[in-house]
Backbone:
């Protein structure tokens, strides 16, 4: 696993219950604003217990997967946390995780420890 993958997993682990983040948002938080696809690749190697279901695409949608049951699982997990999913999308204006200035500083510090 690369340093970037570990950094992505660290950010994802901080997404609070009932909130979502986009692949691009996570990439930007890590200082790589054009690396949304790389975040997607990192999400394929999630460690157990990581709230992977809280990561959605740029339009708030549940991304297509070869394994359709994973898409259904993501929807169910989000709905259990109070995140409404309509037509496969989450309303980002209601549920997007807004990182604070403090969390951005912590993230840079966590990258240094990797």
Residues:
């Amino acid at each position: 696993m690369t340093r970037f993958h570990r950094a992505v997993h660290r950010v994802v682990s901080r997404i609070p219950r009932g909130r979502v983040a986009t692949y691009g948002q996570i990439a930007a938080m890590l200082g790589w604003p054009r690396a949304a696809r790389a975040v997607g690749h990192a999400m394929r190697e999630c460690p157990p217990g990581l709230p992977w279901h809280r990561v959605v695409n740029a339009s708030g949608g549940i991304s297509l997967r070869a394994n359709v049951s994973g898409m259904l699982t993501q929807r169910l997990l989000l709905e259990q946390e109070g995140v409404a999913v309509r037509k496969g999308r989450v309303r980002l204006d209601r549920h997007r995780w807004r990182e604070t200035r403090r969390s951005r500083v912590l993230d840079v510090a966590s990258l240094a420890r990797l």
User: Anything to note?
Assistant: The mean pLDDT is 89. The beta strands are 21-22, 55-56, 85-86, 89-90. The helical segments are 3-13, 23-29, 36-43, 68-80, 92-95, 101-113.
